[in-house]
Amino acid sequence: MHGETDMNEGGPSGRFAPSASPLVHPHGVTERSPATPSDPSFRASATRALGDAQLRANFRRAMDGLMAKRAAQFPDPGDLQALRDLGTAVRARSLLRLPELLEQLEASCARNGIRVHWAETCDQANAIVLGLLKAKGATRVVKGKSMVSEEMHLNAFLEAHGIESLESDLGEYIIQLDHETPSHIIMPAIHKNKGQIARQFSQKIKDATYTEDVDELTALARKVLRQKFLEADAGLSGVNFAVAETGTLCLVENEGNGRMSTHVPPLHIAVMGLEKVVARLEDVAPLYALLTRSATGQPATTYLNLISGPRAKDEMDGPREVHLVILDNGRSRIYGDPQLQATLRCIRCGACMNHCPVYTRVGGHAYEAVYPGPIGTILTPQMEGVGRRHDLIHGSSLCGACSEVCPVEIPIPDILVRLRREATHADAGSKVAGKGTGQTMTEDLAWRAWAAVLKRPRLYRLSAWFATRFRGLIPGGMPLLKAWTMSRTTPLPAPRSLQERIRKGGLPHV
Amino acid sequence: MSDARAAILARLRSSGSGGPLPDLDTAVLERRHWSAAERVQRLRQGMASVHTEFLEARPEDWPAVLRAFCEREGLRTLLFGPATEAGHRLVEAMAGSPTALRPYDAPVETFKTELFQSVDAGFTTTVGGVAETGGLLLEPGPREPRLLSLVPPLHLALLPTSTLHDTLWSAIRALGWGQAPPPNALMISGPSKTADIEQTLAYGVHGPKRLVVILVHDLPGTPA
């Protein structure tokens, strides 16, 4: 979708500009280059998605179901709030002590026989994974679900180096067959219905016959993937929570593919964003309770898998080696801002997507980002630059449904407003990626003209005279106004300005 | 990559993030208490709702209950850990049974294909259960390997009712997982499942298709 760039250091805003060379306006305003196929555009993709009745029906049905299931899991508002407060406090405490917890995690993992690697960028993380695989001569990798590996575009990277990297989560497997990206962070194939999946399986899986029976489709995938687990040289997984005190990697799942990927092959490599650490194992309990209920409305998943080491000397199975790759990719910069740091509390439950009126209508692909939905609209621009992903920070109605359901109380609308401001006018000392690069020439000129008129009373009165006398002649299609008139009637100024009316008729007695 | 490590930690430290840590109010977890009988009831309800099956047994007759189940289901092979006390009792009870006991006593590499293709069921003990949401707690290890509860299509688990905890939180504390975690620890609530196709629940996607709990009623005064 887009190339990986080094995004770890808050540098001059220009380095976060779109890959096409930016046009520089004489006043120093960076004009966003016209959209090219390589440039993400939420507006264009969302417009396309809105016209796709099938897609909208698929999302509407799924999101309605998920909202109802979540609500049923939190019958007591008092308990829910107490649990959210606890989850928020656990995550906030972890972040406040982040550097020391990461060091403690590294030491605890080392004590348990888990090797820890650090990567500033996705390129570095990919290189580490490749190096570990090559050292073992591994050519077949099975993967448990991992959003960080999506962030790294790890599958494409490994395929380019001749290594088969197979997704084993059923949803991920389905979209990998079609070379698609996840449209939801918990249910990656939510945009497809069973008819679409049935056609795909019958075409792409050897000896498969067409069936729309979900049990039969699942059995088909099971058969293919069990053979892959058996043959795999290495397993790759994400991490839901990493426990600093005990050196434990916690994986939350229903299918068992996570356990298969982490316990069957001789080599297990886990990748995680550096924010995933918590201090103690018991901290996981409230986060797990919030995660499963918020994500899919389940009181518990089928498996909670706590990995604290490779195969011990006297064990019969389990991986011989376990490695943990800790990825930064812009997170340490986000960490540096007290308000934006809340972004890193996220436990990736997806509840914000399920409850978002925008996401529900356009689906995950429209965001053209690894992380879609409300959390994506604040996370992606902070990783890729607020100028480059200006489209996303405006892809919200600020209704607040996301922050209302967020299990760790991330103030998504507040952060969106902050990023909207920073996209055009950077705050003093701001570390926001791409700050100030979201301004367009038209917008800038419009504001300059507005300021010029308001500062000059005579010019203001003259403008008001023209606007009222020729009010019917304002072209609805003119720049800026077009954004309004696209789906609304052209606004009509009053026949006389308030000033004029008062001068003529005096103030009415109210 | 030690450069990356130093650079990342330096950036995190330079952020000036700090200040007092917010309090952790765990009252919402602590107030969940149930009587021994309610714990059994809750666990059963929670796990049954995700297709876990239950066999009722007493401490003295669970091996016979297990044998009867294996023969009723026509299981050909049952994989188990021979070094546990439960394993010893199983060997005694299964003598002469058409279900063959297969000890998991060699590295998985020596029989990986067989494990994936021709074992009908795996038997494990548990270290407890969680009443609140319904779940089994396992500590796989040398005596009961990790894949025993994962690869065979049917998982049989032995659960004495006296070992149930109220919540995952209280179980983690009681079992000492936060101090000395075993290399692998698990909470399992049912057979493997997925809802990735149209949100339709399907069981037995990668792990066991069935989970059968042998509930051993070992609390004083509980009816079998």
Account of the 3D structure:
The complex is a heterodimer of chains A (510) and B (224). Chain A has 510 residues and is of the alpha/beta class. Chain A has 23 helices and twelve strands. A six-stranded parallel β-sheet of chain A has the order 3-12-9-6-4-5, with helices on both faces. A four-stranded mixed β-sheet of chain A has the order 10-7-8-11, sandwiched between helices. Chain A has a two-stranded antiparallel ribbon with strand order 1-2. In chain A, a hairpin with a 4-residue loop joins β7 and β8. The longest helix of chain A is centred in the N-terminal third of the chain and has 21 residues. The N terminus of chain A is likely disordered. Chain B is α/β, with parallel strands linked by helices. Chain B contains seven helices and twelve strands. A six-stranded parallel β-sheet of chain B has the order 1-12-7-4-2-3, sandwiched between helices. In chain B, strands 8-5-6-9 form a four-stranded mixed β-sheet. A two-stranded antiparallel sheet of chain B has the order 10-11. The longest helix of chain B is centred in the first third of the chain and has 13 residues. The model of chain B has no long low-confidence stretch (mean pLDDT 95). The chains are: A alpha/beta (510), B alpha/beta (224). β11 of chain A pairs antiparallel with β9 of chain B.
